[in-house]
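Progress against Task 2.4 (sequence-to-structure conversion) is shown through the following example record, which the project officer requested during the mid-term review.
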Amino acid sequence: MQQATIERFRLALLLHALALALVLLWWLDRGRPVSLAEPSLANQALPCLSYAPFRRPGVNPLDPDGTQAVVSPAQIEEDLRIIGTQSNCIRTYGVAQGLDAVPAIAARLGMRVKLGAWLGRDAQRNRAELERALALAHEFKGTVDLLIIGNEVLLRGEMPPAELAKTLAWARQRSPVPVTYADVWEFWLRHAWLAAHVDVVTVHILPYWEDDPVAVGDAVAHVKSIGAMVQQRFAGKPVWIGETGWPAAGRQRAGALPGPVEQARFVRELQKHGAGGALDYNIIEAFDQPWKRALEGAMGGYWGMFDQFGRLRVALRGAVIADPHWWRGPLCALLGALCATLLAAPCLRSQSPPRQAPGRGLAKLLPLPLAGALVGAIAPAQWLAIQQWDRTPWEQFASVALGALGVALVGVTAWRQVHAGVEPAPAAHAAVLEGLGAFLRLAMLFCAASVALTLLFDARYRPFPWWWFAAPAAALATARALSAGWRAPRPQERLLALVIVVCSVGIAVAEGWRNAQALAFCALLLALAAAAGLRSRTNTSSASSAAGAQSCVL
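Structure tokens generated for the chain above:
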């Protein structure tokens, strides 16, 4: 084997090992216990939690005619007992679909209810909702201490402000408890005159979803600042922060990064320093709501103090770990390396020359376990992404297909690196691998370009899916490093690479320099485009270099 080929082989192994090390370090960081501030014992109970009982898989409250959307009293009691371990107060959003049983169950458990009446475009349903909510407020006056007429109706554009004002005035005349309307704080400031029709001004302050997202380190200060501003604007009216919280999963927005550690930090700091004193607040929400992922991506489904199975996620004391199952990444990396080695070893032995230099057989195997380890290390992240982001069977199928495409590309690339590192592949095998590798590379470029385009033009509820492209990018980069030259990409490959480059620059500009997640993904896309589709200078002066290029370029 030529010395130049040996050096390129070592460089390729180094690049692949570096990619594997980065993924393993990511897993180790997710398993690192993080110490956070803790509220005092006096403030350990949360003031109030938003309660929606639609946490079961497949349940969607937006389908009110479906039988699964009707909640049983037994489930409500189970949920309220779980909530009672953290708070003695709940906020609801409607009284249909079985939720009219909440006040009676809460009264039996000694809990307070801020009762919501849902308003929408249907005037007949609105009237039925209001009448039932008012009846419950009268019947359980000692339990229901606030009647919330409508939630973000102005934000959704489902009711004109004048009609909302008439509805609030009508309900206020008939309610035995204070009446309020809940909306994002900007909409309250735009329609400040509505305060004349309520007893309490209820605002939503969600730092993650602000038009200018707020990082978690500044989130509590932001809540307090906006709350104080609203309180000053509506002097004489009590102000209640009806929703504030932080998502445990999703994509980064500017400097606002979702995650379990960030969610725990926000809640603890809110409790410790919080919007206490003159401001009262409610945390959204008690339980994760999987159905919201269809509307808001992963960010919509993971705001709960408890997960969808009723397990506490946000503990107010002790260190926090981003992923208690972080060990699956290193374990799967080890299994991937073993499987790749065991599957390839018999074939490699059958093709080995009778006499090998010491250690050459081991060197031949190295690309395969490294590739298998990288694929294995990323596999748990891919599975988690499917659970958090994919909303339909079609999306799940597309994700599995993209994952299979990546595994195939990594496998073919690693196999060709083995032959390039030790001995040329037979001519028939080389031709097959050449055609398969070219097809897989083109398919991966097409998928990457498609993802880049969607992120450029419709990014709000989409992830930065590094887990699908990290291993293919590393594999193609090592293949390119191993070759002395690089044959000119086909026109369609150059076009797709150009699309990826342009979109990556656009995404980075649109997301801003604070979004480290977006910048890292753009860098990954650029690496993929450079390795697979961009032209580079080809060195053809050396016969050995040309032979090396022929044996290892995909």
